[in-house]
User: Which sequence fits this backbone?
């Protein structure tokens, strides 16, 4: 059996949980071949994905255009999604041909929408794994920027071709999916004990610790100075 796993390159969350699922699958069923298609950062896969899994770089979705981790370019995102449609058609045709030619048995995706259209065109079953879908995100943007309902509908049509959604916790609405099953939380586990991490960072026992992380987008206008007043915390 061969699984092709498509992963959105928007941020690192999609890749992080996908690596955990793929690694667990490889440990439990080593006879199943898995390949990844994603535009996520290669260094992340190098650090967290089973090295036996090949990765092909390809972008099949746009996610959301962002100035930084908290500021979205909402209307520009919707326009970019509409302009992406001709390229999407070419990508779907190319991936469908590739799925057929290489004998892929199952498509899994977190959660680029065109992958499900490609799987359907190739006659390959497909499974979505996520806690949200882009049509739900875009529907919220379209409410604030009217005239883009066609974008939401186009993404929803792709999702509707998935055979199954494995829904992760803290989820949004999934209006397009016909069959949904719930999964427990998927996350990385710490490799080092908390006390060892404290010693490595020079943080005393009893001091509360906060990690401020904004993924690959950064936060250009974040003022950390007020945090210094919380003297019982280390950030």
Assistant:
């Amino acid at each position: 059996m061969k699984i092709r796993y498509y992963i959105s390159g928007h941020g690192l969350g999609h890749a992080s949980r996908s690596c955990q699922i793929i690694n667990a699958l490889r440990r439990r069923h080593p006879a199943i071949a898995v390949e990844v298609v994603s535009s996520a950062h290669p260094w992340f896969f190098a650090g967290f994905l089973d090295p036996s899994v090949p990765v092909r770089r390809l972008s099949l979705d746009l996610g959301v255009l962002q100035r930084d981790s908290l500021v979205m370019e909402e209307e520009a995102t919707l326009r970019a999604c509409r302009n992406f449609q001709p390229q999407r058609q070419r990508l779907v045709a190319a991936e469908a041909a590739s799925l057929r030619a290489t004998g892929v048995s199952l498509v899994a995706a977190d959660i680029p929408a065109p992958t499900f259209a490609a799987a359907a065109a190739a006659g390959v079953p497909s499974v979505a794994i996520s806690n949200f879908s882009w049509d739900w995100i875009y529907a919220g943007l379209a409410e604030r920027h009217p005239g883009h309902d066609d974008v939401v509908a186009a993404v929803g049509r792709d999702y509707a071709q998935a055979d199954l959604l494995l829904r992760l916790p803290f989820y949004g609405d999934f209006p397009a999916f016909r069959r949904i099953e719930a999964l427990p939380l998927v996350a990385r586990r710490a490799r080092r004990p908390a006390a060892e991490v404290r010693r490595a960072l020079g943080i005393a026992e009893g001091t509360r610790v906060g990690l401020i992380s904004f993924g690959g987008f950064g936060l250009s206008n974040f003022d950390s100075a007020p945090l210094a007043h919380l003297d019982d915390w280390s950030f």
